[in-house]
Amino acid sequence: MLAYLGASVAGLAYAPTLKAQTPQETISTRMGENQRFDPAVVVDIARQLAKKPFAAPPNDLPDVFANLNPEQYAAIRYTQPPTWGSEARGIAVEPLHRGFVFRDAVDLFIVEDGAVRRIGYNPSQFDFGRINLPNNLTDIRYSGFKLIAQVGNGKPFDFAVVQGGTFFRALARGQSFGAIARALTLRPAEARGEEFPAFRAFWLERPAVGSNSITVHGVLDSESTTGAVRMTFRPGDMTIVDVETTLFPRVNLEHVGLGGLASTYLYGPNDLLNSDDIRPAVYESSGLQMLNGSGEWLWRPLHNPETLQISAFVDNSPRGFGLLQRERSFEAFQDDDQRFERRPSVWIEPLGDWAQGSVQLLEIPTDAEINDNILTYWRPKAPMAAGSEVALAYRQYWGWNSPERPPLATVTQTRSGRGSGGRRRRFTVDFAGDAFGDTLPADLKSVLTVGPGTFQNLKLLPYPERKTVRVAFELDPGNENACEMRLILEAGGKPISETWLYRWTP
């Protein structure tokens, strides 16, 4: 639940000591090596940092690491056994080196039997390949960490990576990494530029023997706000991450993104871009799924536009949203290396009442699949005031499907191509469901609205052998450069499909 707390808080007795300290000194002083761990202190560290001017992290990464290319950075290997890897605790931890685009440093601490121990940097614990190290290399700390699942009789697998800014990603057993989560998003796509908060430190609690979860605490910092984040990871056939965040704005925050997710969409059946590529499609996520506060299921296929597109789906007390990969066949992508059909779907379930706001979707033009050009998040309607405290929580599900699925027919594919003439475009939308087997509902109909623009040649085409109904139509945008479309199947005066939403742009 979003809770706006008073700015008058306890714990200010530390302020005189903290005033002259850097953020890293503050962290080490309050809860560093050999101190007792207390989750409340993590929150209070963020609270105290918010009372001080922002101090940018030092630019202390040696050039030999800052100038690495992707292949050189990927060649750096940690050569030591992962922390807790031999203790039958189900989850192990491995630190990640700084370098390439991962330049910011974070302090890593582990918590064992209530005591804090810092993971100190030691270059002898890494294999650097052909990189020539400087002789005077100091403790440059780390860029983040990865989590390794060691549960059951299955092969251990890396199920989560926390690295760079406030970014982290996870996956389920058998998958490949794809979409990226953000602990906090600030001012995306604004003219003054996006602000990227970053984690300063993490405390990782040692899992109980035989457990299947690990709790991680972090402090994030930026010019506009600080925050404390508690994440509990539970890997498996569906990996679940509980995220609890408390923010301490330094200034009034007008544009905040919560539960943020980023992904890649280059082209697909609805957006071929005249691509001269051996692959028929290139994307990590098919679309944005939403379950709004009134219980309506919405599906918005993703698009790689020619100009930046920002969509806002206004809601009150959302029940969930996420970026889903609905295409699970190799034939859809024909990519032997990337295996996009194995990328995770990610579902965000708010815990508590998130009140009024909107699910925002940013679709950013790109001509390269390495760019995360899709961003979605919840934007609260109410600003966050400077000096306030804002607490929120949500649950993430990373897996082959979302945990909640519409009890209705769902969209399996959207296709678009040249129409009968002029600027007209032809669309087909396939809905699949058990109701579309041998006997279709007698009064089945499609309800399509377009604005601005018009449509024509609306057809309903059943394919009972695939339990699919295809809706075909032609969009005539006239002189418009953006048309919003909404399509749903009905029978007996009630919806029997999720709602398909789409924005056409030239």
What does this molecule look like?
By secondary structure, the protein is mostly beta strands. It has three domains: 1-254 and 392-405, Distorted Sandwich (Beta-galactosidase, Chain A, domain 5), CATH 2.70.98; 256-382, no CATH class; 410-504, Immunoglobulins (Immunoglobulin-like). Helices cover 7% and strands 42% of the residues. It is built from five helices and 34 strands. The strands form five sheets. The chain has a 16-stranded mixed sheet that branches. Strands 3, 7, 8, 9, 10, 11, 16, 21, 24 and 25 form a ten-stranded antiparallel sheet that branches. The chain has a four-stranded antiparallel sheet with strand order 27-28-31-30, with no helix packed on it. β14 and β15 (239-249) form a beta hairpin. The protein starts with a strand and ends with a strand. Mean pLDDT is 93; it is low at 1-19.
Q: Short summary of the structure?
A:
Its main location: periplasm. With 506 residues, the protein is mainly beta. Helix content is 7%, strand content 42%.
